[in-house]
């Protein structure tokens, strides 16, 4: 998607979360982050300083979007903790 060190923008991150119908807390739980970090990523700033969304978070967001919830060395598993109706709405059922 991107070349070099360019990462997901705050607007792209917010759009990703909303496209899956996730609240900030839900996105934080899926990504293994605190809700406050999600808020920083969506604002693009923390205490007046720019915040970059790490490549690992961008890749995790992509994995969640494609239905990969985890990797155990052999297989992938579906998204955890999302009701089937939410998966259907996000087009991931």
Descriptive notes:
This protein has 93 residues and is mainly alpha-helical. It is built from five helices and four strands. Strands 1-2 form a two-stranded antiparallel sheet. A hairpin with a 2-residue loop joins strand 1 (45-46) and strand 2 (49-50). Helix 2 (24-31) packs across helix 3 (35-43). The model has no long low-confidence stretch (mean pLDDT 81).
Number of helices: 5
The proportion of residues in beta strands is 5-15%
Rg to the nearest angstrom?
14 Å
Taking the alpha carbons of the first and last residues, their distance comes to: 24 Å
Q: Can you write the helix and strand succession as a string?
A: HHHEEHEEH
Secondary structure: number of strands: 4
* Average pLDDT metric: 81
Which geometry do the CA atoms define?
globular
Poorly predicted ranges (pLDDT <50, ≥5 residues)?
none
Q: Report on the biggest sheet.
A: 2 strands, antiparallel
Q: Helicity range of the residues?
A: 40-55%
Derived from helix and strand composition plus strand pairing, the structural class reads mainly alpha
Strand arrangement within the widest β-sheet reads: 1-2
């Amino acid at each position: 998607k991107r070349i070099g060190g360019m990462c997901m923008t705050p607007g792209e991150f917010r759009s990703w979360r909303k496209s899956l119908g996730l609240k900030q807390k839900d996105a934080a739980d899926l990504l293994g982050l605190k809700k406050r970090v999600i808020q920083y990523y969506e604002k693009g700033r923390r205490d007046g300083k720019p915040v970059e969304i790490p490549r690992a978070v961008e890749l995790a967001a992509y994995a969640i979007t494609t239905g990969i919830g985890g990797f155990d060395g052999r297989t992938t598993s579906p998204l955890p903790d999302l009701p089937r109706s939410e998966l259907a709405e996000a087009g991931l059922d």
